[in-house]
Design goal:
mainly alpha; Amino acid/polyamine transporter I; globular; Transporter; transmembrane helix
Length: 353
């Protein structure tokens, strides 16, 4: 029985939000580095990034559904031409398993800190759950996100709104960058933040093109991006209210939750682990759907082999993996973001020829 439009839109929103709300987003660390440190200008930057997320989601799903794409390999040539598409494709084939390694190491680190599990045991827990989800195919990936993503969002909203209610909304005056151009850095930071987060959503959402009608896809992509902006805005407001106390924290929202009590701290720890898990699933799905766009057992086998091959890398230092791999994510994501921003112009020129 085919899904109704509302269910499809909700599925796309969950998949889009689930890939972006990773450990960095859920911990508040990404938001602090890209937005909170700019003070009131950071709020403007987050609003801009939310609008860009919404626009990119709309364009990405419109192109994917109109071309009935099965993976990002079907989409990239439309965005940037064959030569550059082959290069980004090659980079992505390394980055997606690399992102999985980061998430498995992150799972080990979080579960070790929260409940004392050995790091490799915590990594194994994420690997086993990810494997089980991949065995369920695209429907399994979508189902997990439709269940887990609302939980992540609810925890984020509760921690932030309760903290703001208790502590009050305060927007300190911060001028982090010296020089006459400081007033423009918040906008550049917003662009960098979106580009940094676009690799995995492109891999995830482009795999839906052959399974989703155009209107539902476009609406889901737009709504998912705007939702990310609203959540980011809430985290930015919360971070500003606790500034500068959070500046020395590795996990700023964990400090914020601690002001509400230990129960909220544990709840936020669960949120961060769930964020790691959904990002791990998205990385494996993006990689497997690229090599087996028609799904089925080839997709499942490739997904399981990828998890098995990457699992030993979880022994590496989590922070070290992030420092090595995430700058590459940012540069490749910048190319993708620019290509998506210019996609309507490119499509218009193609139709005129």
């Amino acid at each position: 029985m085919p899904e109704n439009k509302t269910a499809l839109v909700f599925k796309i929103i969950a998949l889009y939000a689930g890939t972006v709300i990773g450990a960095g987003f859920a911990s508040g660390q990404e938001i602090m580095q890209f937005f909170i440190k700019f003070g009131s200008r950071g709020l403007a930057g987050m609003i801009l990034s939310g609008l860009i997320f919404g626009y990119l989601g709309l364009i990405l799903m419109t192109l994917s559904t109109s071309r009935r794409t099965g993976s990002y390999a079907d989409l990239l040539p439309l965005l940037m031409g064959e030569k550059l598409a082959r290069f980004i494709d090659l980079v992505s084939l390394f980055m997606l398993p690399g992102g999985l390694a980061v998430m498995l190491a992150g799972s080990g680190a979080v579960l070790h800190e929260q409940i004392g599990l050995a790091p490799m045991t915590g990594a194994a827990a994420a690997a086993i759950i990810t494997a089980a989800v991949i065995l369920g195919g695209l429907q399994g990936v979508a189902l997990v996100n439709m269940v887990v993503v609302p939980v992540k969002i609810i925890i984020l909203i509760l921690v932030c709104t309760l903290s703001l209610h208790v502590h009050g909304i305060k927007i300190p005056q911060i001028d982090p960058v010296a020089g006459t151009k400081a007033s423009f850095y918040w906008a550049w930071s917003a662009l960098l933040y979106v580009s940094y987060n676009m690799i995995v959503p492109v891999a995830m959402l482009s795999s839906l093109g052959a399974h989703v009608p155009g209107r539902a896809g476009a609406l889901g992509g737009l709504a998912g991006g705007l939702l990310l902006g609203l959540l980011g805005l809430l985290i930015t407001l919360t971070g500003l209210a606790f500034y500068p106390a959070i500046t020395g924290c590795q996990v700023p929202l964990l400090f914020v939750a601690g002001q509400l009590g230990s129960l909220w701290q544990h709840g936020l720890g669960l949120l961060i682990w769930l964020a790691i898990l959904t990002t791990a699933i998205a990385n494996v799905h993006g990689f497997a759907s690229r090599l087996a766009p028609r799904g089925g057992w080839p997709y499942r086998v490739l997904g399981l082999l990828t998890i098995a091959a990457v699992y030993p890398l979880a022994r590496l230092n989590f922070a070290g993996l992030v420092q090595i791999l995430y700058p590459v994510f940012g540069y490749a994501g910048l190319v993708l973001m620019l290509a998506l921003l210019l996609a309507p112009v490119r499509e218009l020129r193609r139709r005129r020829l």
